[in-house]
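User: quick one, fold this
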Amino acid sequence: MDNDKHKLVILVGSVREGRFGPAVAEWVAEQAVAHGGFTVEVVDLASYDIPLALPAESPKYTGDAYPRPSGMTGLTAALATADAFIVVTPEYNHSYPASLKAAIDWHFTQWTAKPVAFVSYGGAAGGRHAVLHLENVLTELHAVTIRDGLAFPNYFTAWQDGRPLDPGTAGYAKTLLDQLAWWARTLRAGRETTPYPA
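Assistant:
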């Protein structure tokens, strides 16, 4: 990996049939590549086996020995090697999808001392309720959540041909990515210098 760039994982949080998440993630990935500060990997939760039933042990304390299903190996590796995350999430019933919660709960150290930004979509609220809940959850895992995110209210009328109609959106995405790059650089340097006191 280019030492001047940080590995960014863009996580598609919905596995629902007919979901809009992959279109949003593809556009976000384009913005991240154009930004130039990241190597980008889009990780789609629909591609992995993520059971809801969890082992008795905590992933916080068992680390690499945590007994995850073999179908989750690629997901775990992507999260572990990431320097930063963008979570793409819809809003389901005033919160985020169960698939995303399960993926988060199967891991712990993979999130620790890393920055997470959010891109949400939905009806009138644009997925903001989902993001508020995710901020609480990821803070508990010692991740650092980014203030400036993107939200797409009424995405079904706000997008056309895989792109948002608002011409200002790319500028908002750049602000998000600038902040994410700063935190990725700062937190990676910290992790490499001193073990995080979790």
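User: anything notable?
Assistant: Helices lie at 21-35, 59-62, 73-81, 98-105, 128-140, 155-158, 169-193.
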